[in-house]
Specification:
Helix content of chain A: 40-55%
Oligomer: heterodimer
CATH class of the largest domain in chain A: Alpha Beta
Low-confidence stretches of chain A: 276-285
Shape of chain B: globular
Strand content of chain A: 5-15%
Number of helices of chain A: 20
Strand content of chain B: 15-25%
Largest interface: A-B, 57 and 57 residues
Distance between the termini of chain B: 81 Å
Number of strands of chain B: 17
Distance between the termini of chain A: 86 Å
Largest sheet of chain B: 9 strands, mixed
Structural class of chain B: alpha/beta
Radius of gyration of chain A: 34 Å
Low-confidence stretches of chain B: 42-55
Shape of chain A: flat
Strand order of the largest sheet of chain A: 1-2-3-4-5-6-7
Mean pLDDT of chain A: 85
CATH superfamily of the largest domain in chain A: Ribonuclease Inhibitor
Mean pLDDT of chain B: 89
Number of helices of chain B: 12
């Protein structure tokens, strides 16, 4: 019964908040001669506010015993709530006596209501609920960074607990224990939640995976799926790690190397060791885009380029980095390229396929030091021009197909340490040049193209149908 | 005053009343409540400096729909790895059991009666009663570093196994061709929704203003069963519907000026039509009229650009050999080569349909061991060449290639209406089939999903059409849940209320 009354707390609290805030507002407003008549209603409002605050405090006290909120937060909220009630009572009696010097008391009451309310909100909605709306990014990337010495790593402290920390402890931890479950320590994990243990009972044999894994594996739409749909989800690798840990009897003090590893687990661990764990799309995409923000490009320069038929487009709606393509450019004189120089900080992807590049153009091009992806396929670029492009230190992908580039010319860009893709289809470079090229560019994927498919009998004949 | 003046007054009043009738209660509620409300909230947020998503958007990114330039390139909401899509649809639904899904257990059951557990409560398009099981009609081997299982029917494609991601457990809920094709491409088995290519060109525009943004190429002698609705624009502005082009003869029908009409005269007539349309627009303000004007202008530009881009004859011989084209004919290989040329020239979405994969075995032409083998041969080399050709040009990293049918085929041999079919064939099957994706930020040499021992249903990594659509949109830089279009009073999206990005195949 008492708990039932307690459940009215979230409803009741809104009464004192509204009534007392309005009372304070009227009280302050009444200091202006125009609104002096408001003074007469303030005591009554304070009285009603005080009574509702009292009821809220009582119901709140009953609620606090019944559910598993963060104890510290509850204590703050409780004492501030009581303080608010008392303050409302004091103000009421002051007004009753006709004392008019209660302005500071009024302001204090407003502050008390605000802070108490904030703690109350934090209790129900969770920490950070308010500031989430400001656009703080929800962390969704993988939790575990590359771990070179993975076999020596403690499996619980090094792998399992960090996953819990990042994905679960927000609701199942020190400040909140949804479902009566805590995942921030061995004893609590073994204890389980209000629905029972989360790890499988050894008596059930190998087929039981336990409640935790079961809920992780439920489809996202399922009501009992964990984490809830709106929260950041575990990656496949993280789930397989947890699954593996549970399957192996959930040891708390073993090292990775001491546990049995099947083929699938070996690949997951290997990927983790090399830092190539399912990085998600962002991890690799971001490499084609600088991570630090940049100021917007000058609109006039963009306009001039667009007028010439050049496509200038931000890589994404929320980014100032630009991609530029001359695919359907109508004018390509030197002044257009000089305009390009104005976009130097923003310009990361550039397509100049089939273009005639004057010495002046090459000079402009060599200033675009933020370029990450450059396609010069079919352009008039020469070995000498390439020399100028060694300034483009950020290049990740360079397309020189169908150009007059030679092996000797490529030597001048060997210092481009970030380069990963190099396209050399339809150049003078032959497969016999491969060993030399691979020595010059050990980290680069070189594609000389010229793929041929053999002529197989089936390619030109048909199966007879009769 | 005069009678005439009275008349004019009356007309004016009538016009005013007519206009007022256009302002319904709905308008009032919408404009007063929402209008004022959002104005207030907007200014409030602005004053606090937190702002909304829109204020963070780069003004240069051209997000809004501009009816006068509907196909201008636009930025995606997020950085996407793919800039264009080539979707190879094998209409009629190829058999996963003869190409990618190797099931030795099924071979052991060949000729036996189908266990009743596989039939209880199931519905098939043609199978009635108890059919016999049919073992794989192909030899399989593992290929590449990824050890992907591919059958002897695709000897060329086996060499590029390490370039693609296989989805082995795709499912659908439609066992007839037309609804299943519609579901795959429009997100609904019923007519009326925009196709994926329309959504993509609506969201991203296209990089070449002299060519359509969404091109459709068909081969195999027939249209897909769902007809032109699989590339329709649904409720999106009609400018986003797929433009069907041909790889032989005129690339676009009637693109050449007729005899006696020179280019100046053509220009003059288009100018005149557009002037009339503009007048109409000024009167009615219908944005579709602006789209129409821009379409006329594009058609005029296309007269110059399209014949050149769409002519595959100016490609070198070795490229023709690689694709196995048949000049002058309408075939998949020609279309595949054309698809590469179009993407190279900035076309956003190229949709290929190849008809004739419906391997029922009710005649020799669609028997798994006869006619269908000719289908394998007609696509194997061309689709392999397409991947390699895109790769050597540096286009594969930004072009997403998708291959698949609208559903799969049963592990049982079809017994149409209870009687054994004369040839080896399989019925339509919804519970498991294979689709592969490559390029555009998709993992190389990866297999996602698994079917049971006989390839009847998915046991892990099950995905459906919505998931594939969500993944395609994701690779292009969209969150499929937020990419919507308002229609009939609610926002619509390609993936309806489903879809989850298949993150396992994203690199």
């Amino acid at each position: 019964m008492l708990e039932f009354i307690g459940r009215f707390h979230p409803l009741l609290v809104h009464l004192p908040i509204g009534i007392l805030l309005l009372a304070c507002f009227f009280d302050l407003l009444a200091m202006r001669p125009d609104y002096a008549q408001l003074r007469s209603v303030v005591p009554l409002m304070l009285l009603i506010g005080f009574i509702s605050a009292l009821l809220s405090s009582i119901s709140g006290f009953l609620l606090s015993g019944a559910t598993d909120y963060d104890e510290d937060l509850v204590l703050y909220h409780q004492w501030l709530g009581i303080g608010t009630t008392v303050m409302a009572g004091i103000l009421f009696s002051l007004h009753k006596k006709g004392s008019s010097s209660s302005r500071w008391g009024t302001i204090l009451l407003v502050l008390l209501i605000t802070i108490t309310g904030h703690f109350g909100g934090t209790l129900t909605h969770g920490e950070g609920y308010l500031t989430e709306g400001l656009g703080g990014a929800v962390e969704t990337g993988p939790v575990l960074d590359s771990v070179p010495n993975i076999q020596q790593m403690a499996v619980y402290n090094g792998l399992v607990q960090p996953i819990f920390e990042a994905r679960c402890v927000g609701c199942h931890g020190d400040s909140k224990q949804k479902g009566g479950l805590r995942l921030d320590g061995e004893e609590w994990i073994l204890e389980g939640g209000e629905d029972g243990p989360i790890l499988p009972d050894p008596k059930d044999g190998e087929n039981s995976e336990g409640e935790m894994i079961k809920r992780l594996l439920l489809p996202l739409e399922a009501k009992k799926h964990m984490p809830p749909k709106a929260k950041s989800q575990l990656t496949q690798e993280e789930i397989s790690l947890l699954h593996w840990w549970v399957r192996s009897g959930a040891p708390f003090n073993k090292k990775v190397g001491e546990m049995e590893q099947d083929g699938k687990m070996k690949t997951v661990l290997k990927a983790l060791a090399s830092g190539k764990s399912a990085g998600g799309p962002e991890a690799s995409v971001s490499d084609l885009l600088p991570s630090e923000p940049v100021a917007p490009a000058p609109a006039t320069a963009v306009e001039r380029l667009r007028d010439a038929g050049v496509m200038v487009l931000p890589l994404a709606q929320n980014s100032n980095y630009l991609s530029v393509s001359f695919l359907s450019a109508q004018r390509t004189d030197d002044s257009i390229f000089q305009t390009l120089e104005e976009l130097k900080p923003q310009l990361v992807w550039l397509k100049l396929d089939d273009m005639k590049l004057s010495p002046q153009t090459i000079k402009s091009l060599s200033t675009l030091v933020n370029l990450r992806k450059l396609s010069l396929s079919g352009s008039s670029i020469t070995d000498a021009d390439l020399n100028a492009l060694q300034q483009l230190k950020q290049l990740r992908s360079l397309n020189l197909s169908a150009t007059a580039i030679t092996v000797a010319g490529l030597q001048s860009i060997k210092a481009l340490t970030h380069l990963r893709e190099l396209y050399l289809y339809k150049t003078t470079i032959k497969t016999t040049d491969w060993p030399a090229l691979q020595q010059t560019f050990p980290k680069v994927n070189i594609d000389t193209g010229n793929y041929r498919l053999p002529m197989l009998p089936g390619d030109t004949s048909e199966v007879k149908l009769n | 005053m005069t009678h005439k003046h009275d008349h004019a007054q009356r007309l004016l009043k009538e016009a005013e009343a007519a206009e007022l009738r256009n302002h319904t209660r709905r308008h009032f509620l919408k404009e007063s409540a929402m209008g004022l409300g959002s104005l207030a909230i907007g200014s409030l947020l602005g004053a606090w400096g937190c702002g909304n998503a829109a204020s963070k958007t780069n003004p240069l990114s051209q997000v809004a729909f501009d009816p006068a330039h509907p196909l201008l390139p636009k930025s995606p909401p997020f950085l996407g790895k793919a800039r264009s899509v080539i979707y190879l649809h094998m209409a009629g639904a190829p058999s996963q059991l003869e190409l990618f899904d190797f099931k030795p257990e099924l071979a052991k059951m060949d000729g036996q009666d189908c266990p009743p557990s596989l039939l209880a409560g199931k519905q098939f398009a043609f199978i009635r009663g108890v059919p016999k099981m049919l073992g794989p009609q192909a030899k399989f081997a593992q290929h590449g570093e990824s050890r992907a299982w591919i059958s002897e029917h695709l000897p060329h494609f086996s060499t590029v196994a390490d370039e693609v991601s296989f989805l082995k457990a795709v499912t659908t809920d439609q066992f007839n061709h037309a609804p299943a094709q519609l579901l795959m491409h429009t997100g609904s088995p019923r007519l009326g929704r925009p196709s994926m290519g329309s959504w993509v060109t609506y969201g991203l525009g296209t990089e070449n203003q002299n060519l359509p943004g969404f091109v459709v190429l068909t081969s195999g002698g027939s249209f897909p069963d769902a007809g032109k609705s699989v590339w329709g624009s649904g409720f999106l502005p009609s400018v986003y519907q797929g433009v069907q082009c041909r790889s032989e003869g005129d690339p676009v029908l009637f693109i050449n000026d007729p005899a006696g009409m020179n280019r100046d005269l053509r220009k003059a007539s288009i100018d005149a039509i557009n002037a009339a349309n503009l007048q109409e627009y000024n009167e009615y303000n219908d944005p579709e009229i602006l789209s129409r004007i821009s379409q006329y202008e594009m058609a005029y530009r296309m007269q110059i650009s399209a014949p050149e881009v769409m002519n595959i004859n100016n490609e070198p011989d070795y490229i023709h050999e690689m694709y196995g084209t048949q000049p002058g004919k309408s075939c998949f290989a020609n279309n595949a080569l054309l698809a590469r040329k179009l993407v190279e020239k900035g076309v956003r979405y190229v949709q290929l349909f190849d008809w004739g994969w419906d391997a029922h075995g009710d005649n020799a032409g669609n028997a798994l061991n006869l006619g269908i083998i000719n289908k394998y041969r007609s696509v194997d080399k061309a689709m392999t060449a397409l991947l390699l050709d895109l790769k050597q040009r540096g286009l594969l990293e930004e072009t997403l290639v998708v291959w698949g049918g609208e559903f799969g085929r049963t592990p049982m041999m079809e017994n149409r209406n209870g009687a054994q079919n004369p040839f080896k064939g399989r019925d339509h099957h919804t519970e498991a089939f294979t689709i592969w994706m490559a390029g555009g930020g998709i993992k190389k040499g990866y297999t996602h999903g698994e079917t049971d021992e006989i390839g009847y249903s998915a046991v892990s990594g099950k995905v459906e059409a919505y998931d594939i659509q969500a993944t395609i949109l994701h690779q292009l830089g969209f969150n499929h849940e937020e990419f919507t279009y308002p229609f009939q009073g609610r926002p619509f999206r390609l993936t309806d209320v489903g879809g989850k990005v298949i993150s396992q195949v994203v690199s």
